[in-house]
Amino acid sequence: MQSKLLAAAVVLAVASVAGPATAAGHRDPLDARTLAAVGARFGQLMEAANRHDLTALSGMYWRSPSTLLVAKSAVPSEGNWAGYWGNEAIERKLHDIAASGPVVLQPDLSKLKVVGLTREVAESYDPVTITVSYAGQDGTPRPFLIVIDWIKAGGDWKIASEILLPVPPTPAAKS
Which pTM value belongs to this model? Predict the structure, then answer.
């Protein structure tokens, strides 16, 4: 299963590069092989999260006080969602989420999009269904969007920022 997910992420990342450019003459600063490598890292992130492998997850983040995770808060004074800055805060947040019970991330790899922003920075986007019982959530699968900025550090692609956005329900149609 893990190798299938990883292979799918790589194939889809490469496919996203082959699609039409958003503007005439646009050239991505990263080649298809590099974009596929970032897509593979996204697949590895999903696998590590589903295994609750906190060591692997920690190793995927850029080692910087500027690293950011935006996620559900369990602390009312932080609001419903909050930004967690730096590796210590992110590791504590991931530990708390993993300790809350089952966490299942189901990415829609057919919609995974990876683009280069510079030769050292890439961005990925993917709709993901997340099942979690953290901070008052009831374990019902819910749709999210995950936007990740990746930075090339030490010869590898690391997460500089990960933003989880809950998708609100579709409003009822007015009659």
Answer: 0.83
